[in-house]
Amino acid sequence: MEKFFKSKAAGFVLPFVATVVLFILWELVVLIFKIPPFNLPSPTNILKAMGEFAPQLTANSLRTLWTTLAGFFLAILVGVLLGFMIGYSRVAYLTMYPLLVAFNTIPKAAIVPLLAIWFGANAVPAVVTAFLLAFFPIAVNVALGLDTVEPEMKDVLASLGASKVETFQKVGWPHTLPYIFASLKIAASFAFIGAVISESVASNAGLGYLIVQATSDFNVPLAFAALLILGVLGVVLYGFFVYIEKKVIYWAR
User: Fold this and answer.
1) Residues 6+ apart with CB under 8 A from 169
2) One-letter-per-residue 3-state SS of 93-132
3) What is the value of pTM for the model shown?
4) CA nearest 172: which of 140, 148, 136?
5) Per-residue pLDDT tens digits for 116-163
6) Each residue of 69-124: pLDDT tens digit?
7) Among the four 75, 106, 144, 223, which has the fewest Cβ within 10 Å?
8) DSSP, res 251
9) Any idea of the CA torsion for 127, 130, 131, 137, to the nearest 10 degrees?
């Protein structure tokens, strides 16, 4: 049994079994306590809603996926650049880090109505909100990775005549990669959260928009179906970066 827990298969089998057990318990609770579908639908009712509203779920899932990915990749670009600036420049750290912290404390849900006024009820607010939620952990982790490079390693390379660029290539970049991938796995979930928050307030499509419409019609099984699809999309994106991390920084494990 211990050998199984250490195997790669355990990472797939155990979550799958836990999910099946959760759905079985969920189904039993709804049946035993006779909970109406408009309060808490059973997994079977949710599956029926998925089949009945498959076209709507597919179209809105694709909308949420592309707005999330657009904001997420924009967050990677800006977050990595800001992280390198903050990690390598003392002036940039003193100037920009307090501003980033202050901006990150502002609830992004409070910004969505402003985005709707500026850009309208379309995909742009969702992309911007996904970006705003995702870029901060990326920037902070990149800066932390650069800041924790051992000074002795820098001194050794400097004594051998290495330039700052060469020091970054040999030490800074490899040392920062684990921090970057750790931040990407966190930021991916944040990007989905940001997109759905915006879609529920200022959008004409997407899973967030569909959830609001479904609950207003008391179609709770459809709302739960959208939530489950959102969870699956988040797990898939997380798993993608876990796979890339294992291939790129295999030496860190």
Assistant:
1) none
2) HHHHHHHHHHHHCCCHHHCHHHHHHHHCCCHHHHHHHHHH
3) 0.89
4) 148
5) 999 988 899 999 999 999 999 999 998 888 888 777 777 777 777 777
6) 999 999 999 999 999 888 888 888 888 888 888 888 888 888 999 999 999 888 99
7) 106
8) G
9) -170
